[in-house]
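Late entry, evening session. Most of the bench is empty. Finally got around to the prediction I had been postponing all week. Sequence below, unchanged from the version circulated by S.P.
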Amino acid sequence: MTFAHKSVLLNECIEALSIKKDGIYLDATFGRGGHSLQILQRLGENGRLYAVDRDLEAIAAAKTITDPRFTIVHGVFSNLKQICDELNILGKVDGLLMDIGVSSPQLDDASRGFSFMQDGPLDMRMDKSASIDANYIVNNYAKADLVRIFKDYGEEKFAANVANAIIKQRQLEPIDTTAKLCSLIDKAVPSFKNSHKHKATRVFQALRIEVNSELKELELALEASIDILAPNGVLAIISFHSLEDRIVKRFLQQHSSLPQIPASIPLTQAELMQRYSSSILFTNVQKPIKAGADELQANARARSATLRVARRAKRD
């Protein structure tokens, strides 16, 4: 069975990348290739597009593209710098795109275990060759670790309630399906009027992040981008929840401004620039971009998407 995927903020991403016909581009989250195919359409004969994905099903989809300007690599964010080094494009990439989080095919395929809307095995691995899945975490992690995950990665106020319910239930039988876990969450989390979120949303998000080390992988990819991008290369990142966006925003702020100098030190702005301008690694940092009304009407999943764009500063 095939599952459709609508790339979010597609036009905004392509515009932000300012694609040069002979440029080198890296799509670090190929998914089903929506962004990649649009980039390829804008490249000339000498342009190159490299794509990476950790999901083997995405890799299989990418291998159907026979364009000689395109190369797909199975890998994770934490290895982006090494991958680029092996491809001999380190420091040469004119545009780096990262579409963070779970894709529509992963959500829509019940057998992947990402969705609380349909029953399936409790899996949630983006790379199905990985050893630890959500089943292992739910049935083996200590209560304190479950509480920490639900609080830190899901911002779940009733993390302790959910953890207690899991500990109690798994002593009777394994919690091995999404439906079983949803049933526990439904009883453990109070109902509130005018709440539009499913009770399981935060816990499922937390488990998915833990299974795939998503936040740590993102942090490592952002740090790698400094060495991957060419001078004036564009970094474009789409995030889908506040935890991801906070990491991206903090990274760009950290690397696009002068260091904080105590007011008691008598330095003018010009002197600060002369001394510390080399610490500014990103310029032209744009305000966050959200989906427009037309896209929201066509694709409800775009409502939580945030695009942040910056340009790699010229190297000395």
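Two things to note before I forget:
DSSP finds 14 helices and seven strands in the chain.
The mean pLDDT is 91.
Will write this up properly tomorrow.
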